[in-house]
Amino acid sequence: MLSETYKQILKITVPLILSSLSTQIMQIIDRFLAAHISTQSMNALSISGSYVSVITIFLSTITSITSVFTARLNGQANFKQISSYTWQMLHFSILVFAASIPFYFYPDIICFLPEQYKNIGLGYQKILTLFIFIPTAYGALSGFFIGLGKTGIITTSVIVSNLLNVILDIVFMFGFKDIVPAQGVTGAAIATVIANCVGFSMLVYAFLSKYNRLKYNTSKTQFEFKRFIECIKLGSPLALDRIFNLGLWSAVFVLLGKTSNDLATIESITVSLIILFSCCSDALNRGTATVVSNLIGLKKLSEVKSSVNKFIHLNIVFGLIISIPLFLYNKILFLILGKINGNILYLNSELSFVFKAVLFIVFFDGIVKIFEGVFAAGGKTIFPAILNSILLFLLVGCQTFYMYTKGTLDSIYEINYGSIAVSLISAIILSIRYYQKKWNRIIID
User: Whole-model pTM?
Assistant: First the structure.
């Protein structure tokens, strides 16, 4: 029988995994539908979508830090103060909306679309940029429910909004009889915004329910500068690290593309698989941060080690599960990837190596994310972020650039070994600092 601690951990992490996995699958479907219009439409959607996704990830990483403060206050039984941090990040979302307005009317201020794609993809970019405050605010509200361990509403809202997004994609992209005209890629943006609004509305309704208003004071909307800055200071290093990660991998992809289309294809598949399976490590990260923050609030630091060990055990289980498609049934994975990327059979040996590399990268990254969650709960996010960025820059970025300038960038083996080394070294260093008890700056009275 599972212990109560394991049950609580699974209650938090499993819904987060399903939510993240659902989002990844729906993004793939968006690109698949755009490909049915034209290759240019798919490329325009992919380029604009990547640009918007980077900003969304940055902003929502900051606002979702509310889970740490919520869990800590919940552990202290300081229920009336819990919603205050959530409201600070909702105020932040309003500022994001105000800042996005100029980019709607003057989209060329920041536009990565090549000229041949602007007519197709600019409308998509404008609409998603204007409404980027919705996923930003969603991050704040999801942090509130994760911090309380009530992840069911998040899973429900994500599944509902993503299914709605697929239906609306078909309606707005291809048209519906004489009622809705076909709007191509712009229609995909309209569908996404409507679906996001529905998912967000579900969280708002739950957040402002009578029970939550009475117990957690969720109707208290006051802006509190000190708590606003607390959220920004704790969340920003994590957000900047993620942006640096995305930027560096984009640069690596460009260099590989300039060298060989095959190398670019292989690396694209590698990154896609890592992103797909990272739903487990991301859930472990947020789950660890929530559980440890709660223990800090309860003043039960002696129980942190036991909880962290249970998350590590769970990461091992996830690793074994992930090994099934990557090792035992990789022919099915080859078939799926072939449908998406075209003929890749001649890349069999390279991709077989990629499958093994992805397993090690995701597994060690899971360990890293667990310790990053512990550090976040303890109020220390700067060191893990800087550590990861430096290692990635040295072991992947510099190595790739060096090989490119020397004309020796002719395989993906070195890059993937570098990626494994980044995760492994990060895991070792963070674990050492964790066992040295250098993860917590919160003073327990």
Answer: 0.86
